[in-house]
Each structure stands twice: as structure tokens, then as C-alpha cells.
């Protein structure tokens, strides 16, 4: 298995503020890494750094073997931001088309990819509606479809399941597992324990520090608890008491 994402001794923040400290992370191709942590923990800051939108204050980030930031790699990354960045005066189909063209996909394959991506998020019947007439959840789903449209080597999804009902959430997870099985890598952030349980690897972050890392099963075993939620709570208490589990 080759390495898709490597983060080494990362310190990151904004101006003089430090948000993330001592972050080390390795994600192999074909893996789904779930980044879980409370609001303000630094999840978006970390994924933005991996995307190359923020330059590390200290340490290194490489994606597909290239140091980030790296413009050339953007075509290989499908990104769903936490805040939807859509053209509301265009239809959903026009949005998908625009982002597909930006990613360098030619017209004929793009048409197929748009049908595929819209199907995954149940937007096929709404493709020709204007985005300004979309609900919040529909916009989230369209953002996810845009991330999927180019069949990228790496998918980075910042809170992809917010505003998505349980049935569709399952359908999306099925597809994420299928995509990972084809050797693509997926990094997603979430607050939701169900998502954490579906991930191959977890990184729990709290107050800007990684407090626990591993597979869900291994973490449950190491922490002598029953659920990933309990791992998170116990690791959080350990962090407050400055205890580490190793
Ligand atoms: N552009 C910015 N300028 C200054 N501070 C920022 C900026 N973006 C985020 N922060 C701060 O960095 C910290 C981490 O924010 P971040 O958005 O990474 O958290 P998060 O884990 O993604 O939270 P949420 O679950 O609410 O999305 C917060 O204290 C936030 O106020
Ligand atoms: Mg965030």
C-alpha cells in the first residue's frame, strides 16, 4: 500500500494563534480516515492544510508524494468544503458541469460522471433546478456530488453527512466504501459517531491535539470500552489529566 497523505510534526494556526500542535498522520491509499472532534478542535484547519489552502506554520504535509501546497495536485483531489461554495444563479447540473470542466474532464465522460454523482446523492430529479431554490440539505448533497464528479485519487470531505437523513447516509457510506475499494483515499471530518464507526482509521482531535489514533476496533480494545464514543470521552478525560494511553 502506498501512502497518500503524510503529515509530520505539523503546527498550524492563524497569524500568531496556534490551533494545531504535534499532528502526525499517515493515510494509505484505499483507506477511509475519519477525523473526529468537537467544534473548534481544528478539523477544518487540518483538512485545509492537507488540501494546501494553508501553508504549515511548522512541519510538513505531503499528498501523493508531493509537498503541499501544490497547485498541480488540485486536479487529483475532490474537495467538499464545510461551507457550500456553489453558484446559486446556476442550476445544479450547470454547477457540476462547471466544476467538472475546471477539473479537466472532457464533455462526453463528464456527462456520465454527472449522472453518476447526482445518483449517489439522490439529486437526479432536481438537477435542472436553480441552486437558489435548493434546501440546505440539497446544497450539501450537491457539494458532495461536485467532490465526486472527477473520480479523484483523494476525496477530502469536511462534514459530508450534515443535513443528510439516515437512509441516504447509508447509501453514501456504501458508495464511499466502494470508492475506497478501488484504491482511492478518503479523508472526512465528522461530529457523528456513526460515521466514525464506518471509518477504517480514526484520528480524534480535541483542543488542537491528536488524543487517539487507530482503527475503531483497536481503539475500543486499547481503551477497554464498548464504543468509539466512549474512546473519545476517555481520551478527552486523559488529555485533561495529561495522561497518555501509550
Ligand atoms: N480563518 C481563521 N482565522 C482565525 N482563526 C480561525 C480561522 N479559522 C478557524 N479559526 C480558529 O481555529 C480553531 C479551529 O477551527 P476549525 O474550523 O479548524 O475547527 P473545527 O474542528 O473544524 O470546528 P467545527 O466542527 O465547528 O467545524 C477555532 O478556535 C477557530 O476559531
Ligand atoms: Mg470545521
TrEMBL record:
Gene3D superfamilies: P-loop containing nucleotide triphosphate hydrolases. This is ABC superfamily ATP binding cassette transporter, ABC protein. Transmembrane segments: none annotated. Keywords: ATP-binding, Nucleotide-binding. The keyword Nucleotide-binding applies. Residues 5-232 form the ABC transporter domain. InterPro entries: AAA+_ATPase, ABC_transporter-like_ATP-bd, ABC_transporter-like_CS, P-loop_NTPase. Pfam families: ABC_tran. One of its GO terms (molecular function) is ATP binding. SUPFAM superfamilies: P-loop containing nucleoside triphosphate hydrolases.
